[in-house]
């Protein structure tokens, strides 16, 4: 397509938007509303998934060894565990460290009771590895592997918590998919209405263009450009507003609800918008393109 034809399509597309400005504004407003809601939902979804991901990595698997096992055998077990792809971190807790932690957690204010043990360590066979996985859903397979290693006496894992976190992540994915599909359907319907009005207004002009030899693509392209421009404008406005809101929201929550800092974890604004900006622009332009293509094929018989 020639540059002059491209420029003509853009010029006519802008004229169409201006000519049907009420419907165009309604379409832009609806797309902006849809993408604003999409952005809010994306904030919630991305930060919830980020929080769940952090919590997943805090769900450890404790591995205890047979009595009288040697340090060399423990090290060999650790090497086998490290070779697993799903292992994020591996921590070794000696019997002395286990006893110190137990004393602090259980007898923190009862020094006399602690003194009765003197130098004895009632947890002398409690050395262990604590393993954190990169995905909690992989825990059952990992536990089965560890239980088959020689020298492993017992494996403690939070299978119910792991399953709960995995199911919650899956539920978030399903809900997000359903909402996105609904928003896209509404936006495409509005684009369809706007382009249909533009075709009705220019019906006679289009007929004349065909009589003097204009190609189907040349006639249709301004309406496709119109739809894409509407989608682009509908994407830009909510992005600006969402950027301001997200910054203010995480600052407000951090100041007013500092007690939740250990529970809620927020993604950096730049990290969020590095994904949200191209995604929103692609959705906006894509909605405009698809909506206009459907409309011209349905109503523009040239």
Automatic annotation (TrEMBL):
Pfam families: FtsX (PF02687), FtsX_ECD (PF18075)
ABC3 transporter permease C-terminal domain span: 178-298
Occurrences of domain FtsX extracellular (ranges): 59-155
One CC-aspect GO term: plasma membrane
Places the protein is found: Cell membrane
Keyword Oxidoreductase: no
InterPro entries, per database record: ABC3_permease_C, FtsX, FtsX_ECD, FtsX_firmicutes-type
Record's keyword annotation contains Ligase: no
Keyword tags: Cell cycle, Cell division, Cell membrane, Membrane, Transmembrane, Transmembrane helix
Residue spans crossing the bilayer: 21-45, 171-201, 222-246, 272-296
GO BP, sorted A to Z: cell division
Domain of life: Bacteria
Entry's family note: Belongs to the ABC-4 integral membrane protein family. FtsX subfamily.
Function of the molecule: Part of the ABC transporter FtsEX involved in asymmetric cellular division facilitating the initiation of sporulation.
Protein name per its UniProtKB record: Cell division protein FtsX
Species this protein is from: Anaerosporobacter mobilis DSM 15930
